[in-house]
Design goal:
With about 325 residues, this protein is an alpha+beta fold. It folds into 2 domains: about 220 residues, Homing endonucleases (Endonuclease I-creI); about 90 residues, no CATH class. It is built from 11 helices and 8 strands. A 4-stranded antiparallel β-sheet has the order 1-2-4-3. It has a 4-stranded antiparallel β-sheet with strand order 5-6-8-7. The longest helix has about 50 residues. The chain is rod-shaped and about 110 Å long. It starts with a helix and ends with a helix. The C terminus is likely disordered.
Length: about 325
């Protein structure tokens, strides 16, 4: 089961408006959101009509039951189609033509004249917190999805809700901002997508809709992923430091061998000779390991090592000057 399914399943268990006072009003807000995210409104024989489309059977059952509870009439399944993109079956639900106009007016989707549709969100539907949460829950059930990063690949955290109309999507952005959820809006083909990409914002969204179990699962996942990322960064850092240590050690060994080859080794002080011999015998040791073995400080050892490298380069420069004189 996908994480999106987990969230939707929990919202269904909660209901659009919970229990008690305000439930019917919240149901209307959620049903309105469902129509605006997964429905189609229009006129047939001069009368308003609408269809609802759902890929998920339990979501379709939930809205059919909620619709019956709210308006005392059923949504009928007219047919099923297959989505060419996802390969999933879509259930198409229709309201009885004799009730469609009344329902659309109560859902704030058609103006009182009955001739023009409202593309945005009716302010009356979301004028208190219970209704607002009901609308947000309905919108996610209708057009929402939430994906988590995969172990491989570049995908990250992503939560989105797709609307058919731009005005409704823009109003939804304003609605979410009242819960301190700052979202982005993009146009995708013929739809408008409201989305969140940060794990903090997605956590806040799950808290707003009351999906506590999904929130716990999300938090556990993000914590585990953060720990894995920290571990990977630490390993990469260690590998990088190991590479630097190896490069430095090779440079030091090459410098000491130059001094030996050019017979400058015997001119070195005893401290430098001791260090040079020990480095040649232990080419893979880090500076700290060398310092500990020789019982001197790391800074002292670094100073002596720099001196060996400088002497090898000085010898090379003298030789080149001699050649130029000749």
């Amino acid at each position: 089961m996908s994480f999106t399914s987990d969230v939707k399943k929990e919202i269904i268990a909660l209901g659009l408006g919970g229990q008690g006072k305000g439930t019917v009003a919240a149901n209307k807000a959620g049903l309105s959101a469902f129509v605006q995210t997964s429905g189609e409104v229009g006129f047939k024989d001069g009368k308003p009509t609408f269809f609802l489309v759902s890929e998920t059977e339990n979501v379709a059952e939930f809205f059919t039951a909620t619709f019956m509870e709210t308006f005392g009439t059923e949504l009928s399944i007219t047919h099923a189609t297959m989505d060419r993109m996802s390969g999933r079956d879509k259930l198409v639900l229709q309201c009885a033509p004799t009730r469609a106009e009344t329902v659309l007016k109560e859902l704030g989707l058609i103006k009182r004249s009955g001739k023009d549709f409202r593309e945005g969100i009716s302010a009356v539907l979301v004028n208190d917190e219970t209704k607002k949460i009901g609308y947000i829950r309905g919108a996610f059930l209708g057009g929402g999805s939430c994906t988590l990063p995969k172990e491989t690949g570049q995908t990250g955290y992503h939560l989105e809700i797709v609307f058919a109309k731009k005005k409704a999507a823009m109003d939804f952005c304003d609605l979410l901002s009242e819960f301190e959820l700052i979202v982005k809006l993009i146009e995708r083909k013929d739809t408008y997508v409201v989305y969140l990409k940060s794990k903090e914002a997605i956590s806040d969204f799950l808290a707003v809709v009351g999906a506590q179990n999904a929130l716990k699962k999300f938090s556990a996942f993000s914590k585990k992923r953060d720990e894995a990322n920290r571990s990977n960064r630490a390993q990469n850092c260690m590998a990088g430091n190991a590479d630097k240590t190896t490069i430095a050690a090779v440079k030091q060994v090459v410098a000491i061998r130059k001094l030996v080859k050019k017979k400058s080794f015997e001119d070195l002080s005893e401290e430098l000779k001791t260090l040079a011999r020990f480095r040649l015998e232990n080419p893979t040791m880090s500076l700290q390991e060398l310092a500990d073995s020789l019982k001197i400080s790391k800074s002292c050892l670094s100073h002596r090592m720099r001196r060996l490298i400088e002497l090898s380069e000085t010898t090379k420069e003298k030789k080149e000057k001699g050649k130029r004189r000749l």
